[in-house]
User: Fold these one by one.
Assistant:
Number 1:
Amino acid sequence: MKVGLIGLGSMGVGIAHNILRAGHSLTVFNRSKEKAAPLLAEGAAWADSPRALAAGQDAVLTMVADDNALQAVTLGEDGLLAGLAQNAVHISMSTVSQALVASLAAAHARHGSGLVSAPVFGRPDAAAAGKLFVAAAGKPAHIDQVRPVLEAVGQKLFEVGDQPEQAAVVKLIGNFLISCVIEGLGEGAALAEKTGVAPEKLMEVLTGTIFGAPVYQIYGKLITTGGYKNPGFALPLGAKDNRLVLQAAEAHNVPLPFASVVRDRFVRGMAQGLAGADWSAIASLAREDAGLNN
Amino acid sequence: MKVGLIGLGSMGVGIAHNILRAGHSLTVFNRSKEKAAPLLAEGAAWADSPRALAAGQDAVLTMVADDNALQAVTLGEDGLLAGLAQNAVHISMSTVSQALVASLAAAHARHGSGLVSAPVFGRPDAAAAGKLFVAAAGKPAHIDQVRPVLEAVGQKLFEVGDQPEQAAVVKLIGNFLISCVIEGLGEGAALAEKTGVAPEKLMEVLTGTIFGAPVYQIYGKLITTGGYKNPGFALPLGAKDNRLVLQAAEAHNVPLPFASVVRDRFVRGMAQGLAGADWSAIASLAREDAGLNN
Amino acid sequence: MKVGLIGLGSMGVGIAHNILRAGHSLTVFNRSKEKAAPLLAEGAAWADSPRALAAGQDAVLTMVADDNALQAVTLGEDGLLAGLAQNAVHISMSTVSQALVASLAAAHARHGSGLVSAPVFGRPDAAAAGKLFVAAAGKPAHIDQVRPVLEAVGQKLFEVGDQPEQAAVVKLIGNFLISCVIEGLGEGAALAEKTGVAPEKLMEVLTGTIFGAPVYQIYGKLITTGGYKNPGFALPLGAKDNRLVLQAAEAHNVPLPFASVVRDRFVRGMAQGLAGADWSAIASLAREDAGLNN
Amino acid sequence: MKVGLIGLGSMGVGIAHNILRAGHSLTVFNRSKEKAAPLLAEGAAWADSPRALAAGQDAVLTMVADDNALQAVTLGEDGLLAGLAQNAVHISMSTVSQALVASLAAAHARHGSGLVSAPVFGRPDAAAAGKLFVAAAGKPAHIDQVRPVLEAVGQKLFEVGDQPEQAAVVKLIGNFLISCVIEGLGEGAALAEKTGVAPEKLMEVLTGTIFGAPVYQIYGKLITTGGYKNPGFALPLGAKDNRLVLQAAEAHNVPLPFASVVRDRFVRGMAQGLAGADWSAIASLAREDAGLNN
C-alpha cells in the first residue's frame, strides 16, 4: 500500500519503521525534518506539508501530540484532507478527544474519504518492536482497507465499533484505568510503608498473586523506586487525558468519581512542581498526605 | 506436625483437606459439627472446644468469619489460648483488623506462645486445590515452625514482616485494591456502554493488553455478565474489609481517598438493597448513576 | 448617563427598570422584542442590534445567558464593540468564564474602551427591587465611571480587584459555595430523616443557631419541601457554573475536591432526568443514596 | 431544683454558673477539684464521686470530653447511675456517639430513671453567658422535668425528638456542616488568592451577601487570618466528631461523600503535624494543594 505518516515523535518513528518493514511505500511529514533522516535512509519519501503528503496515498496515518496538532495537520488549506483522495482512509492514532474525532469523522464523510480512529496501547519500545496494541473503530470497510497497516504496527488489533469516536473513548478509558492503578498503588504503598512493610514487598505480593499484569508491574516499580521522577509519560499529558475522559463522560452524562479524585491529584501535582515528572508522580502525593518525606 | 484447625467454612474445609493430604495429624473444631463429617472420615479428629482442640498441638490454625469470631475462639475460658502449649504457634488466616491482630500478638507473647498472621488470597476453589497465596507475618522463628503447614495450604508464601499485624494490613490493602478495580471497571464500563461500546468488548481490550491479570478477568466478567448478583464474596463482607482498611489507615494517619469513595458505594449498596449481592455489585451503582437500567 | 442594556431575561428586565428609575437614559436590545414593550412604555428606546445600541452610550450593560451569548453580542460585525465609543465602558453582569472575561478585557483594551465585570448575587425578585449585590472588578477609573449604574441596580457594591476576571472568579466561588451548602444540607437531611428527625426540624435548629443566613434558609426550604422540583435556577445552569469554577481553578492549579463531588452529582442528575429541576435537586440524590424514596 | 453537674471544663464551668444564677441547688464533681473552687465559693456543693453526686438530685447534668469519659462517669460501681433516684433525669450535654447515647438510654430505662440528650451549640463564651443553643431529645415527660435547667443554660431550646440519640445525631450533623463550611471556604479562599483576590475581600463579599451567618464569619476569619493555628476546637476533636457522624451515618446506611472528603483532610492533618491546631486548619491543606506556602 501507499502510506503517508505524519508525526515523527518517539511513537511515530517506531511505527514508521514497521510500516517500511512490512513492505509498504511510505511518505513522511514532521514539523522538523531532522527526525525523518533515518527513515529517508531506509527508503521513505519526504513531503513538505500534510496536504502534499496526502496526495496519492491509500492511507494516511497521524500520530501527533494532541487535539490542536491533529486538527492542524488535518484541516485547513495545507491539511491532509485537502490533499486526500476520496477513497483513501485517514488512520488517527493519537489519544485525542471524543469530540474532535467525531468532528473529523464528519469532515471525512463530507469529503468522501474515511476515518479510522486507532489509538494504541504501549510505549515507544513497543512501537519500535511492532508490539503495540491497537484499538480501532470506524466503518468496517474502512478498517478492512487499512488492516495491513494496522497489523504492521501492532501485535494485536481490537475492533471496538463502527464509529471512530468509540475507539477514542476506549483509549481514554484505558488511560483512566491506568491512572486508577497509580492512585490505588500510591495509597496502598503509603499505608504499607507506615505499617513497616516495604512497598517493594507489597508489590511483590500483589504482582505475585491476582494483580499479575504489566500495569501493576510497570507502575509498581515506578512508584516504589522513585522512577516517577523521570517523565516516561509526563504528568501534564496524564492531566490532559484525565480532562478528556471527564469531558467524554460528561458528554454522555456518566459520573466518574475515581476520575474526579485523580483530577484533583493532577491539578495539585501541577501546583506543587511535578509538571516535569511522570504522571505516576501523583503517587508521591499520597505519601506526602501520610506525612512521609518525598 | 500435630495441627488443630478452627473454622470449617468454605475456605477452612479446603485448607483442612490439604493439611491432611500433606500428612499432618489434624484435629478440627467448628460451631456446627456436620461440616466436619467428611474430614473425620478422612482421619481428622474432633474437639469439643477451641481450648480442648489446642491442647497438645504444635500449631493451631484459625479461619473464622471476623474479628468477633476470632476473638471468641482465641480468648476466654474456652478459647484456644487457654489450651495452647507455650511453644506452640497460632496461625490466624482470617481477614481481620490490624488492631485485633496486634492485641492477640500481645496475648500470645504473655502466654509464651507465638502468633503468625497469615491471611490468604484466593477463593474457595483455590483453597480446595491448595492453590492459595499466603501472606505471613510474625517472628521468623514462629514462621519457620509452621512453614510446613503454610506450604501445605498455599501455592506461594510471602513473608511480609516480623510483626503479625503487618500481614493483616497487607491483606487489607490487597482487598482495598480489588475494590478499586471493581469501582474503576464499573465506571469505565458505564462510559463504554453509553458510548455504544459493549462492556465485554472493553474488557477484551483491557485484559488483552496491559490489564491481563486475574483480578481484571474475574471482576470484569462479574460486572459485564451480571454475575455480581450472586454473592461469591458478599457485599457486607466487602464493606467490612473497607471499614478495616480505613481503620488501619487512620491508626497510621494515612488518608485513602479511593477507599473513601468505595466506602460511600458500599454504604449506598446496603441502603439500596444490595446486601445479598456480591461486593462487585457496587459496579451497578456506577451504571445507575449514568442513567442505565439495572 | 446614557446607558444601553442588552439581554431582557428575568434578571435584565428588573435591572432595566431600576436604571430608568434612577433617571438615566436607557436603550435596550434583546433577541425578541416583545420583552422590551413595558420598558419602551416607560421611556426606554429600542436598538436593532448590539452595535446600533452601543453607539453614543456612556455605558453598555450586558446580562445574557452564557459565554456564547456574551461573545455573540460583544464581538463580530454587529457586536457592541463595533459601535462603542472609545471612552465608554462595558458592564458585563452575566456569570461567565474567567477566560472569556480576560479575552473581552483584552479586546476592549485594544479598542480603547473599558470593561467592568460586575456579576450579581440575587434572584429576579432582588433584581426587580434593585436589591442585588454587585461584585465588580476592573480599572478603578472604569468602575468610577459607571458607579451610578452599578448603584442603581444593587443594594451593595463590592469592588474586588482591578482585573475584570477577578469578579468573574469571585462570582463562581460564590456559586460554588452555594452548591456546597446544597450538597451538605442534602446529606445531613438524609441522615436526619433516617434517624427519625424531620428534616424541617433539622433546618430549624441550623438556621436558629449559627447557620442563620439566607443561603441556608432558602436552600433548606427547597430541599425539605420538595421545592427543588421547580427550576428557580435550573440544574443545567448549576452544572455549567460548576464546570466554569473547575476550569478557572484548573487554570490557576487549584484543586477543589468539594467541587469535584458536586460535579459528579450534577452529571448524575443530568443522567437521571433532573435536567428540568432546580440545581438544589442534587440533594435528592443524597436521599436516593440512603435508600429513601423520592 | 436539686441539680448535680459532672465535668468542669471550660464549657461545664460556664453552665454551672448559670445553673446557680437561676437559683437551683448545685452539687459538682470533676476529676480535679481545683476547677470547682469558684463555684464552691458561690454556694455549690462538692461530691467525691459521680455516684455520691447523683444521690438525691432531681437532675444530673454531664459535660465531659468524649464517649469514654461519659461511659466512665455514668456506669460502673461509682457511676452516677448507681446513685441516681429512679424518678431523676440525666441530662447529657457532651457531643458523643449515637450508639453510646442509645445504650445509656437503655440503661436508664432499666434503672427507672430518664435520659435527655441535650448537646449544645456554642463556644465557652456562650456557655458563660448562658447563650448556648440546646438541642434536646428524650421522652417529653423527661424534657419537661428538666426544662428549667435547659433554659437556664441556653438562649434557645430545640426539641428534636423523643429518642435521646436523635439529639446526638442532630449535633453531629451540625458539626459536620461546620466542617463543610471550613472545607468549602478553604478551597474558595485558595482559588481567590491565586486569582489575586485577597481572601479577606472574598469573605467580605460572602458574609455581606447571602452567607451572612456566624459560621461564615467565625471560620472565614480563622482561615484568612491564620487564627486556625490556635486550637479553639482542636483538630483531633474535629476528627473525632467526623468519625462519629460517619459511624452514625453508616449505622443508618447513609453515604456522606462530603464527610468522606473532610475525613481525608483530618487524617492528613494528623499526619502532617496539625494535631495541635484548630480544626479549621484543614483549610490550610487546600492552600498547600494549590502550591501556596503556609
Number 2:
Amino acid sequence: MRARVFVSFKSTVLDPQGQTICNALHGLGYQAIGNVRQGKFFDISVADGTSLEQARKDLEVIAHEVLANPVIEDYQVEILD
Amino acid sequence: MRARVFVSFKSTVLDPQGQTICNALHGLGYQAIGNVRQGKFFDISVADGTSLEQARKDLEVIAHEVLANPVIEDYQVEILD
C-alpha cells in the first residue's frame, strides 16, 4: 500500500520561500501567476499485510507527531493504492 | 485557476532525508513502514483570464526551468480547478 502525506504551512503563516518564487516568476515575465505556496510531501510505502484502517490511523499519528509541526503546519493523509 | 506542481528526486537518486525519516519511524515502532521518499509541492494560483492550455504550457516551463532541477528531479503539473 502506498500513501502520500502532504505538509504545508497553515494559510495564516507567512511563506517567504513561496513569496520569493512568486516574485522571481513575475520578474521572468509570468504576470499571470498570482500566488505561490510551497509545501512538502512524503511518499510512504506500507507493508501489504496492514489493514486500511490501521494504515490510516498510523499515518495520521506519524503525520501529526513526526512529519508536521501542528503549531504552524497543516497535514493531509492520502492513501494512493 | 489553481495548480499544483510536484517535484521529487528521480527514483534513481538517493533521498537521505526520506531514509532518515524511515529509520526514525522504525525506531518508534512503525515496522510496517517500508520506504519514505520526500518531495516538494508548489500551490500556484493563476489569473482567471488565462486559458487552460496557456496555463499548462507556462506551468510546464516554470516547473522545468525554475522549480525543479531536471538533472536529478522529476516534476508533475496538476491543474486543480
Number 3:
Amino acid sequence: MSELREQAGKVKEAARALAILPTLRKNAILLAMAEALEKRQGEILEANAVDIAAAESKGTSPAMLDRLALNEGRIYSMAEGLRKVAGLPDPVGEVIGGGTAASGLRITKRRVPLGVVGIIYEARPNVTSDAMGLCLKTGNGVILKGGSEAVASNAAIARIMTEAGISRGLPEDVVCFVSDTSRECVNEMMKMNGLIDVLIPRGGSGLIQAVVRGATVPVIETGVGNCHIFVDMSADLQMARKIVVNAKTSRPSVCNAAESLLVHREIAPAFLPDVFAALKEKGVRLYGCPESRKYGEISAATEEDYAKEYLDLAMSVKVVADVREAVRHINRYGTQHSEAIVTRNIENARYFQEMVDAAAVYVNASTRFTDGEEFGLGAEIGISTQKLHARGPMGLTELTTYKYFVEGDGQIR
Amino acid sequence: MSELREQAGKVKEAARALAILPTLRKNAILLAMAEALEKRQGEILEANAVDIAAAESKGTSPAMLDRLALNEGRIYSMAEGLRKVAGLPDPVGEVIGGGTAASGLRITKRRVPLGVVGIIYEARPNVTSDAMGLCLKTGNGVILKGGSEAVASNAAIARIMTEAGISRGLPEDVVCFVSDTSRECVNEMMKMNGLIDVLIPRGGSGLIQAVVRGATVPVIETGVGNCHIFVDMSADLQMARKIVVNAKTSRPSVCNAAESLLVHREIAPAFLPDVFAALKEKGVRLYGCPESRKYGEISAATEEDYAKEYLDLAMSVKVVADVREAVRHINRYGTQHSEAIVTRNIENARYFQEMVDAAAVYVNASTRFTDGEEFGLGAEIGISTQKLHARGPMGLTELTTYKYFVEGDGQIR
C-alpha cells in the first residue's frame, strides 16, 4: 500500500470521531485556527516568499504571482472566513424527513457528514483554509492536494491550522495535506474508492476535466462558466447595457462572469454600436458573427470562441433570430453554470428560464450573482455545474449526505 | 459519430420538451402505457418465448430462467406498477428553497428533471417498464440498455410502451432502447458526458463495479448489500433469533438480506446453538470464525466470506468482543447498505447507529425493511450505496435535480 493510501486510511478512521463532534467543539476549533493563522502569520509569509521566489524564477506572469501572494490583509481575510464559518448553522444532525412506517418502525432521515472529502486545487493558498474550514465544520475528514506553485504556503497554512485544531480537540489525522505535487499522486487520489467519498476539483477547466475523466471516486464538477447574456427584442436597452458591462467586466476572471453576448436581430442596430463602445471603453476584445460585425469594428468569431470561457476581457457576440435560437445556442455551447435574458416579454422570460439547462437562470440581472454569499448560503466550497447531488453554489449542506436511523421493537418482514 | 451517440442526442433534445410536460399529461401517458402492456401481452409473451428458448439452449439455470420468464400475472404487475407511479405526486416543479436576496433578486430553487438517465441492467424484463415509468414521470429522457438474455422481451416492452405513450403526447425520441447488447456499447454509454446526465446500473456487483470504474458520466452506485446483524450481549434472544432468520431467509436473493451475523462473546453460548439450528432448518449454510464453531457444526469462514454478498442461503458468523469490534468489522467489510443491532442497551444502540457507515442503520429490526415502499417513497429505481446525491432507497425525488430561477429588475454587482 502506498504512503498516500495509508494516510487516507487514517483520515477515514479519524473522520468517524470528527463526525460526532458537537457543534460547539467544532466551532471552538475553527476559532482557534483563525487565531493561529493571525498569530503565526510570520511563518506563512516566510513560506509564501519561498513560493513567490520559485514562481518568479520560472517567469510566472504578474497576474499569477498576484494570485499566489499573501500579505497581512489576505491572511486576515482567511481568518475572518474561518470565524464566519464557525458562526454558520451546522447542518450535521438536521432531521430532513422520516416518520413512523406502517410496520411501526420509526424512521429518521438525518444529515451526516460525507466522510472524507478530497480537494484538488490550484494557485490561491486561501483555498487551503477555506476548504479545511468548511469540511471540518461539516464533520468531514479532508485530503488537500494543492498545486506545486503554492506548496510551501499551503503546507504552512495546513500545519498551523491543524496544530491549533488539535490543541482544541480536533481528532488527529482528520486533515491530510499532500505535499507530493506530482501528477501520479493526483491520479492515485482519483482512484481511492472506499477512502475518499467525494472529490472536488477547484481550478481551471484543464484540471477539472482531467479529474472528471480520470476519477473512479464520485466527483463534483465545479466552476467552468461559459455564461451568456441574451438581449431580447423587448429589452430595456439601458438596463441591458449595464448588465452586459457588469457581467463581463466587473471581475472577468471568475466563473460567473459573462463570456458571450446574444442579441435579438431586431434590436441589434439600436443596441450593438452602443454596447460595443461601452465594452471597448473597458478594454474588452470582441469576437462576433458576421452580422454583428456590421455594427462595429470587431474581430470575427470562430466556432471555438463560442465554446470558450475567456476568463479575461474578451467576449463573443452573436445575433440571433429569437429566444428559441438563443436557447439552442446556449444549450449547445454553455457549461450549465449561469445564463441570463434581458427582456420585458413575460413569455420569453418564462421560456428562457424553463428551457435553458443551467444551475441558475436569470431574468433582468447580471450572471455575477451566482455565488454562495449572494444566494444566502453563507460560504461556498465551489459552484457545481453538474446535476447530481448539488447544483450551483455549494455551501455547508452540500458537504453532507444523510443516513436513515431506524428503530423497531422486533419488526420482521 | 456513432449511431448510439446520435440517438442519445435526440433523446437529450426530446427530453427538453418532456421536462415541461404537465403532470396530468405525464400521468395519462403512463396509464396508456399500462393499458397497452395488458392489451398487447401476446406480443410480449411471444418475444419472451424467444428469450427463454435461447436461454434454455444455453443451459441457463432454472433460477435464472424463472427471473427471465413472463406470464400474464407478471405483465399485470408491470402495468399495475405504472398505474401506481401515475398516482404518485410529481416532484418536478416543487419549490425547495429560495427567498428575496439582499440585492432584491427573487430566487426560487425548484426541482427539475435530471435530463437523460441511462439505465444499464440485467435479467428481469420488468426493469424495462419500471425504469421507464419512473424516468418519464419525473420528466427525464431515458436510455435503456438491458442484458442480452432478455433483449427480445425488453425490446417488445419498450416498443409497446413508447407507441402507447406517443399516442397520448409523449415527445418522440425521449426513450431509446438499445438493442445492441455488446460490451462496447456499454463502454460507449459510460463515456457519453453531455448526453447522459446520470447512469444507474442495476444488477450484480460485477456489472455495478464495471460501471463505477469505467464511467466518466456521473454514476449512482446501487444495490450491493453485505448486510450484518449484530446481536449484543443484552439482546432479547428470542427477538434476535427471529430477526436473524427473517433477515437471512425471507428473500435471500435481494440486497437488503443479511449476509453476516455478529454475536457478542458473552451471549454466544446461549444464542448460537439455537440460531444455528433455526438457520439450518431453513437450509442456510454457515461459515464461522473459530470461536463460533464451538457452538455448532459449521464450516470455517475465510476472509472472503466476510466480504461476500452471498445472495443465497448462506451466512458468515463471527463472535466479537463488544459493539466496538462489531462496528469496526462492519465498517471494514460492509457495503454501506443496511446494518442492524439487536440490543436492550441504549448506549450501544446509539453508538452503533452513529458509528456504522451505512444508508440505513437499524435497532431491533430486520434489515429487510430498506426498500422504497417500506420507507414511504411509493416506488423505487434502486437503492443507492453511495453518499452523493442519494443514499438508500431512491424514489421519484431522487430522479430530479434543481435549478435556481432568479428574477431581477436590472441588478448588477
